[in-house]
Design a protein that fits this description.
4-stranded antiparallel sheet, alpha+beta
Length: 152
Amino acid sequence: MSLELCGFAAWDTAEWNRHPNMLDNCAKWIAEEAAYWGVPITKLTPAQAQGSGRGVCQHVDLGARGGGHHDCGPGFPMDRVLEMARGGIPTPTPPEDTMAITGFLMEDGRAALFVHLESGEVKQIEQDRPNADWWKKPDGTYNWITKGNPGK
């Protein structure tokens, strides 16, 4: 069994923890597969992973048998994810600055971006003319336009 995550081996633990939904999904998948296949939710050492060990390991733990890959990386919160898979740690909450970004090209050729903050606030920035820089204030900072909370 294997699980692919959308992350990078270079990520530190803080960066991995900024993706709580991915870690939660990973933990749920481990719990589901472990229950189905009867695999213990135990972290394997490289020797166990390359031998006859039964449990959970990272790609790097497989050594040459795993193609010499080095993911998930030393920053991956493996102990935390396994504890979540065992049901011992609740799903982490996303950081307060979680946001979604949408953008589009307007009819006049200018681009616009909308940043949807978790708080419900929406900020918008537009180009001042097609293929130009983003609208800037005289001090050189960008002119974000607060749109309020359209969901409320």
